[in-house]
Amino acid sequence: MTKGWLAPIGATLVAILASVALPAAGNAQCRLCSSPVTTPNQSESEQQLVELQVESQLDFAQLIVLDSGEGSATLAADGERRVSGSVTAISSRAMLGSVTIHGEPGRRVSIDMPARIELHSVDGRRIVLEDISADFSDFPALGGDGSFQFNFGGRLIVEGGLEGDFRGDIPISVEYL
Fold first, then answer.
1. Which residues on adjacent β-strands are paired with residue 161?
2. Rounded mean pLDDT of the chain?
3. What's the farthest any 2 CA atoms get from each other in the chain?
4. What's the predicted TM-score (pTM) here?
5. Reduced to 3 states, what is the DSSP secondary structure of residue 53?
């Protein structure tokens, strides 16, 4: 009968000693004990979303076209202007597109833009904007103030002496890396 009574006490004492001998859980992550977590905490990421703000739209304003042949007008992301073929000049009012991204300071972002889109007139005619490019590096990062600005441009292809006001949207997506 004594053996039955001592066995539970012995198990209880071992459990108490084991809990005393174990170190208390710390607040910091032990980088030597387990694999470190390298992904951001979801709740923190959700609090600081990335936001895109268009500062100015890409606008070729007016082009001077001499004949009905093919030509192009280029507004490069670095501000360079070039014309070729039947297009002889780009208006001085032409402007690069400009975008500002706001988000978590220091975070790297991925920026995705199409290389080509079609522009449409009210009466259904269309022209092509291709070679859309921007002046950011392969791995842009938001600055210390949580912002990053870039310019973009492209090459407008004019075929057959088209005239009119052409419009289109350039979808730009931004994600944290």
1. none
2. 80
3. 113
4. 0.71
5. strand
Q: Do the bridges between strand 126-134 and strand 147-158 make them parallel or antiparallel, or are there none, so unpaired?
A: antiparallel
Token pair 């950011």 is found at 136
The residues spanned by each domain of the chain are 50-176
Q: Which residues pair with 149 in a beta bridge?
A: 100
Q: Does domain 50-176 have CATH number 3.40.50?
A: no
Report yes or no: 137 and 110 within 8 Å, Cβ to Cβ. Answer: no
What amino acid is encoded at 112 in this protein? D
Q: What H or E segment, with its residue span, contains residue 76?
A: none
How many angstroms separate the CA atoms of 139 and 137, rounded? 5
Residue 116 amino acid letter: R
Q: Two tokens at 174? A: 């931004």
| Spatial distance between the Cα atoms of 89 and 104, rounded to a whole number of angstroms | 42
Q: How are beta strands 109-112 and 63-65 bridged, if at all?
A: unpaired
| Residue 48: per-residue pLDDT | 80
The residues near 87 (Cβ < 8 Å, ≥ 6 apart) are: 63, 64, 65, 71, 72, 73, 158
**pLDDT tens-digit series, residues 100-159:** 999 999 999 999 999 999 999 999 999 999 999 999 998 899 999 999 999 999 999 998
